Amino acid sequence: MMKYKDISGAVLFAIIGIVVGLIQPFHNLEPLGHYIIGTVIITMGLWIFKPGGVPFMAGSTVLVAGGLIFGLQYDVVVSGFISSSVWILIPALYFGFALQKTGLGKRIAYLVLKSFKPSWMTMALSWLIIGIALSALTPSITVRIAIMMPIALGVIEACKLEYRSRGSAFISLICWAMCLFPGTGWLTGSLSGPLILGFLPAELKHLVTFETYFQILALPWMIITFVFVILVYLFMKPKVELGISKDTFKNEYKALGPVSRQEIVTACILLGTLIMFTTEKLHSIPAPAVALLALFSLLMFRIVEPKEIGTGANWDVIVFYGVTISLSTIFMAANIDSWVAPMLYPALLSLADSPLIFLLVATLVFFLIRLIDVPWGFSTIALTVGVLLPLFNQYGIHPLVSSFVYLAGINFFLLSYQQPWMAMAESVIENKGWMSKHIFVAGICYIVAVIVAIFVTLPYWQLIGVL
Prior knowledge:
Blueprint: H1 2-23, H2 31-49, H3 56-69, H4 74-77, H5 84-102, H6 104-113, H7 120-137, H8 141-158, H9 166-180, H10 192-199, H11 210-236, H12 246-255, H13 261-278, H14 280-283, H15 287-300, H16 315-333, H17 336-350, H18 355-370, H19 378-384, H20 388-395, H21 399-410, H22 420-428, H23 436-463
């Protein structure tokens, strides 16, 4: 049934895209703009529904081919691949591969878990610490899910919890959220950081470094993370005690054996890379160069073998990100941004006199858009990213403050289909973690956490002069 639903959804989007290209219903939009919008709609259908299990690359190739067919230049349709963010992303995906291959990621997870007496509170705290630690070492959410979710399933089974019960949902949803939320607060903590950098207008890119990103966005995302964990604990914690002993995690850690040379080398390279990222002002080596040098080190020390170059990084994700980052340039070349601007920008700019109102309204509107714009709302980001320039020039709102809206929307969820990372996690734990009602409750907790973060962080942003 799901297979036919996916095919039907993709076909429907394809029909709508073709109709838009042929009928050209939008007033004052050039034919090229209609063709590109039609192509994007077809692409979105492939990205959202993935009929027959086709990868993201299928939709990406349609978008690139469509852009070229309708007359756009190569440097426009693939502009994302020359973005610095892609050259941070590619090495960073290999960091995740190294964590997984050497077993360092699993060792870190069990090291944390065995340090606490098991309870619902310490379980939530453990996932939080593990999420932060792994986010510091790799932006790959895929890797974090691959490392953490099987451990979460193991905890559920060790506690003899019923699958998809309140207890299993508590454990697995907090684990999943800690794969996403903490690392959003720094440039290389999740894939969202390089993505936002790639989307920013060229005039604003120089304002974004690892240091400024961390300074502006680390606090709100730590608040979101902590508030989310607290709310889930309050509203989803089972009444019965967590039935597992500390020895369980000690035995799992012991089973990993002694720390290997590969783990030590990987840890040194990744920690050194993190230090270089955070001290860019001192040595002036840009983040992409640091990331590439780290990849060179992984290759030289044979942590990544030559035969693993093709499999160590998810090239489907790389192509997908490169193409999505190109969307803003594609929309500009087709004058779609100029067509949208008079309808959209005045409404957004009219709110900018009150940063609090602007952030609250823009975030909630993006949440509503995310109910439709899947995956992650990238097309909406591409269409609206141009407003960041007048927001900065006329109102003094730093582009990373405005980008908080995008980041909050990227991580948004109320239903499982809105989060591709959730679908991935469900696959890893074989749909044994949660039910739809648990996702909805956790999603409400996330929305509340985001609103709390805006109120709490606003005075801090004003204090440091980015508002």
